[in-house]
Design brief:
Blueprint (H helix, E strand, L loop, with lengths): L14 E4 L2 E5 L4 E3 L31 E5 L2 E5 L5 E4 L2 E4 L5 E3 L9 E9 L2 E7 L3 E3 L6 E3 L2 E13 L3 E2 L5 E2 L1 E3 L5 E7 L4 E3 L5 E2 L6 E5 L5 E11 L5 E8 L8 E7 L5 E11 L5 E11 L4 E3 L5 E7 L1
Length: 304
């Protein structure tokens, strides 16, 4: 019988046939038969799904824009978070300011917050605002890196102002009731037979957000120069002549002259966003009517 000549350096599973008997190399020895077929085991159970990461949600009503000294100030109120460009940013405890440097007198600016090198910063822009469709945040139109915080109007200087007669700083967040009032510096007269603004110095001026209403009023103490003459007055919003917006009243002078008063309040809606004023309109059918310094006022009440 011939000797078996096993192959040298076989690989696992390699076969060798001798005398019609097939052997395979198991890795350590030659075994009769063929190498078993490797079976794939069952798939193990799926691992657990990890927790969903946090969703950053815009936070509203945190922060407020006011005038502080000569500058605008955006500071924390009801929280210190503002949502800018898809991320929550912290409003510093001391707030951030904006000077009126190089701005145009008589212009209404929108005030936007943005991040500059990791620092919360304010800018004034005449570009309007709109809602970011992906976050719902009010942004500078076309620029989601700028979030709206308010509006303000520049007066001579240039300077910011927010006084009892000129409410020219309005916050987008945390709006609160705002009152405006003004009166004459001296008695003023008109002999106009049609409604006219008696004098522009009595105007109460304010800013308004689109969609907001404002309550405007006048109260007048007056004297008619001609006996038997009748005078009328009313609230004028952004007008200096023509039919009053409302709040109309009248007085008639008996023989010997007459001191009388009239006034009223009207709710005005549908005004455009930006700057407005309320004034006194008056007319008299004969002679003249004098509106006294003490006792003649304009008022406006709004939110901002």
């Amino acid at each position: 019988m011939a000797n078996i000549a096993w192959p040298s350096n076989p690989s696992v599973g390699q076969t060798y046939t001798f005398n019609s008997i097939t052997y395979y190399w198991t890795g350590t020895t030659w075994s009769p038969g063929t190498a078993p077929i490797s079976l794939t085991g069952p798939t193990g159970p799926a691992g657990l799904t990890g927790p969903t990461g946090p969703v950053v949600t815009p936070i509203g009503e945190q922060g407020i824009l006011t005038k502080s000294g000569a500058n605008l100030l955006f500071a924390p109120k009801k929280g210190n978070i503002i949502y800018i460009n898809g991320a929550q940013q912290t409003i510093p405890n001391a707030g951030v300011t904006l000077a009126p440097t190089a701005l145009s007198v008589g212009t209404v600016y929108y005030i936007y917050a943005f991040m500059s090198g990791g620092t919360l910063t304010l800018e004034a822009s005449t570009t309007g605002h709109s809602v970011d469709s992906s976050t719902g945040v009010e942004i500078k139109t076309g620029d989601s890196t700028r979030s709206l915080v308010g509006q303000a109007k520049i007066i001579a200087g240039p300077a910011w102002t927010d006084t009892a007669t000129q409410r020219f700083v309005l916050s987008w967040f945390n709006r609160r009731p705002i009152a405006v009032a003004n009166n004459f510096s001296t008695s003023r007269s008109t002999a106009s037979a049609t409604f006219v603004e008696v004098n522009s110095e009595v105007r109460s001026e304010f800013l308004l957000w689109s969609g907001d209403s404002v309550y405007c009023g006048i109260n007048v103490l007056a004297q008619i120069s001609t006996s038997g003459a009748t005078a009328q007055g009313g609230v004028g919003v952004d007008i200096t002549s023509g039919t009053p917006n409302g709040g109309e009243g009248w007085i008639t002078a008996p023989v010997g002259g007459f001191d009388g008063s009239f006034g009223g309040t009207v709710a005005v809606s549908g005004l455009a966003e930006g700057a407005h004023f309320v004034t006194v309109l008056a007319k008299v059918d004969s002679g003249s009517i004098t509106l006294f310094q003490n006792g003649s006022v304009t008022t406006a009440f709004l939110m901002g």
